[in-house]
Amino acid sequence: MSEEKYKTFSKNCIGDTLLVIFEEQRQGDLLYGYTENYIRVSAPYNEDLVGKISDFILTQESLVL
């Protein structure tokens, strides 16, 4: 998928509740992961979320583009 199509697709999902798995990778106070349809997201670091599948409401701020 081209970068432009990825950005458009990701932005169209804002407001949707998606499944996400957060990785242990951490930058500062942020945790990174992927939704069920491979959208890269970030969230405030929470050790309890690492490696678990969770419901996640996609926001503009959580998108990693």
The fraction of residues assigned to DSSP E strands is 35-45%
Shape: globular
Strand tally is 4
Rg, Cα atoms, Å: 11 Å
Total domain units = 1
The residue-averaged pLDDT reads: 93
Task: Give, in order, the helices and strands.
Answer: HEEEE
- Give the N-terminus to C-terminus distance in angstroms: 14 Å
Residue windows where pLDDT falls under 50 for at least 5 positions? none
Structural topology:
Layout: H1 3-12, E1 17-27, E2 30-35, E3 40-44, E4 53-57
Description:
By secondary structure, the chain is α+β, with helices and mostly antiparallel strands. It has one domain. 15% of the residues lie in helices and 42% in strands. The protein has one helix and four strands; from the N terminus they run H-E-E-E-E. It has one helix spanning 3-12, and strands at residues 17-27, 30-35, 40-44, 53-57. It has a four-stranded antiparallel β-sheet, with no helix packed on it. Strand 1 and strand 2 (30-35) form a beta hairpin. The longest helix has 10 residues, at 3-12.
